[in-house]
UniProtKB/TrEMBL annotation:
MF annotations from Gene Ontology: 4 iron, 4 sulfur cluster binding; ATP binding; ATP hydrolysis activity; ATP-dependent FeS chaperone activity; metal ion binding
Full-length numbering of the shown residues: 103 to 366 of 386
Quaternary structure and partners: Homodimer.
Similarity-based family: In the N-terminal section; belongs to the MIP18 family.
Official protein name in the record: Iron-sulfur cluster carrier protein
Lineage top rank: taxon: Bacteria
Keywords on record: ATP-binding, Hydrolase, Iron, Iron-sulfur, Metal-binding, Nucleotide-binding
Length: 264
């Protein structure tokens, strides 16, 4: 919008009733986007008005996982986000041709996020989820500037190494004075399809370690909100754009995520 002043971010205004959660992880591939999408779908199924900003600029995958294949449209000077499964969603992938990679640098990312938050017509949302890129990059700082009241949700696997980087990513909240709402442990074991045993593919204890570490660094109690097992149905649901919390809400992953959604 050349020439005009930047719009204010409605979610950052005093009196905003929208709860904003920024979903963060230390590294990629731990299931941050899968968790974001399923939490959003579970909350929408519970009757909440939910939006998701896919701020994982370099690894945008939220629209596909959510089954949101529509394109944003423009009405007057606002962007209307497509929605799927009751969730409004906007992603950088909707504005890049084909599968072109995004090669933007910090200032452009900040600008994109500003537009996603202020120029998209979200309506009255109960909850807005931001799927952050992995790590402690520019976007995390931008989120803190644009929506200081956003609470951080940290996703990790049970693995020691993953937990360490997740804790580092979470501790950025200390610098930005943001609240950490809790830790989600994903890929917490694989229930054996042949017996009752749990196979701890990625070890154990990562969620607890991150929560304890963040409790120490922040000086406030950071809880583990839940543990999501490895579940083929979750992966399939992501590939097909049909979140497992909707297609199979009582599956191990589906019920774990619905429980976590109920705590947010
Ligand atoms: P991130 O956003 O952290 O990079 P994704 O959500 O893209 O991670 O997940 C990485 C891959 O792992 C995806 O193929 C996803 O379907 C799969 N996945 C994530 N969590 C689980 C789980 N609990 N069970 C099975 N597959 C999972």
């Amino acid at each position: 919008r050349g020439g005009t002043a930047e719009r204010e971010v409605p979610f950052a205004q005093p009196g905003s009733l929208t709860r904003v959660y920024a979903v963060a992880s230390g590294k990629g591939g731990v299931g941050k986007s899968s968790v974001t999408v399923n939490l959003a779908a579970a909350m929408a199924a519970d009757g909440l008005k939910v939006g998701v900003v896919d701020a994982d600029i370099y690894g945008h995958s939220v629209p596909r996982m959510l089954g949101a294949y529509g394109k944003p449209t423009q009405v007057e000077n606002m962007i209307m986000p497509p929605s799927a499964n009751g969730v409004k969603v906007i992603s950088i992938g909707m504005f890049t041709p084909g599968n072109a990679p995004v090669v933007w640098r910090g200032p452009m990312l900040h600008r994109a996020l500003q537009q996603f938050l202020a120029d998209v017509y979200w309506g009255d949302l109960d909850v807005l989820l931001l799927d952050l890129p992995p790590g402690t990059g520019d976007i995390a700082i931008s989120v803190a500037q644009l929506v200081p009241n956003a609470e951080i949700l940290v996703v990790t696997t049970p693995q020691q190494a993953a937990a360490e980087v997740a804790e580092r990513a979470g501790s950025i909240a200390v610098q930005t004075h943001q609240k950490i709402v809790g830790v989600v442990e994903n890929m917490s074991g694989l229930p054996c399809p042949h017996c009752d045993e749990m196979v701890d593919v990625f070890g154990t204890g990562g969620g607890e370690r991150v929560a304890e570490g963040l409790t120490k660094t922040t000086g406030t109690q950071v809880p583990v909100l839940g543990a999501i097992p490895i579940d083929v149905r979750l992966r399939e649901g992501g590939d097909e754009g049909k979140p497992v919390v909707l297609t199979d809400p009582d599956s191990p992953a589906g019920s774990a995520i619905r429980t976590i959604a109920g705590k947010l």
